[in-house]
Hints:
alpha/beta, 434 Repressor (Amino-terminal Domain), Endonuclease, Chain A, 2 domains, six-stranded mixed sheet
Amino acid sequence: MAGDRPERGTSVSTVLGRRLGGELLRMREARGLRQAQAAEALTASVPKVAKMERGLVPMRDPDIRALCHLYEMDDADTVGRLLGLAKLDRGRRRAKGWWRHAPNAGGLAEYIALEDVASRVRNWQLSLVPGLCQTREYARALEVSYGRWQDPDEIEQVVEVRMRRQARLGGEQPLQLYAVVWEAALRQLVGGAEVMRKQLEQLIDLSGRPNVRLQVLPFRAGGHPCITGPFNIVSFAENEAVDVVHVDGIASTVWVEDAGDSASYAAYFDRTARLGLAPRDSVTLIDNIRKEL
């Protein structure tokens, strides 16, 4: 469900599982049936049905077919779409990504799991350079400023996790990154002038990649639709997988998985991007700010 934090320790990523479980839950409620009736159709327990509807366990194809029949939603298109979701979910639960055992990855681990299998990420940033574009020095300066770590080794572990993420921008099937960054993020002297100068140089270099689109929203744009906070929209190649929105706050993370809500975020992103500078003009502004330093 949108806004719920996923259960820990159940899978690499529960996003598709929650999407599938949510659809089955809505189908059951539309028929006015109880979980006990669904459990009887599966010869299973009520707690198992509850876990399925919350996306906490992988779903077997026979169980999905049985529930669709019970809910009178057993047309080929509906069943095929749900079976496709279940197949994707099972495959991602079996994934053995490096992030699962990365020290101090914390809440970032589930997001990295999604990013690793995504086809595109749209990122809106108010005050920070996007994580996929950060230099090691910039990322280290951020972690030091947060004051969360007592041991310098812990800071380096977190920085290493952030650097390893950036491998997705390369390779045979690189992640498509579309980042819109407010001008303030480019002028904030994170780590000092020299660190920021190198960071801006890296942004200019990355903007030249065919899979990276970078736009700057200048101060002169004034008010805009995304002024309330940053977010990521994660998209997948599979038609069955709805976009997922990741909103990372100071003390909590919100996952938006409902198709309608994620579409609203996409519309806000698009309207804000239209207010931004064109990519070439964005690079010019970044370079001018770099020269000022």
